[in-house]
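Same chain as my last thread, 85 residues:
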Amino acid sequence: MLDSVVAAYQLGHSAETIQQQYPSLSLGDVYAAIAYYLRHQKEVELYLAHQSDLWANERREWNSRSGALVQRLRDIQNPKVTGNP
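reply #2:
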């Protein structure tokens, strides 16, 4: 959830707006996350970059395993018209 709070904060959202976007968090939780981010910005940025790399690797792996299936589904969804007009 730190990822989401920091991303929203970086976009300029207020703590109140962030709390409305994530109702499972209290306003105090949002302020605490922002305060932690501001006190440990370098570490949080490294963590976020690491998380981003992990997700990118997962996406690449998923795409490599499911590429044929995804292409087949696309072909079914958008069949090519054959024949002469």
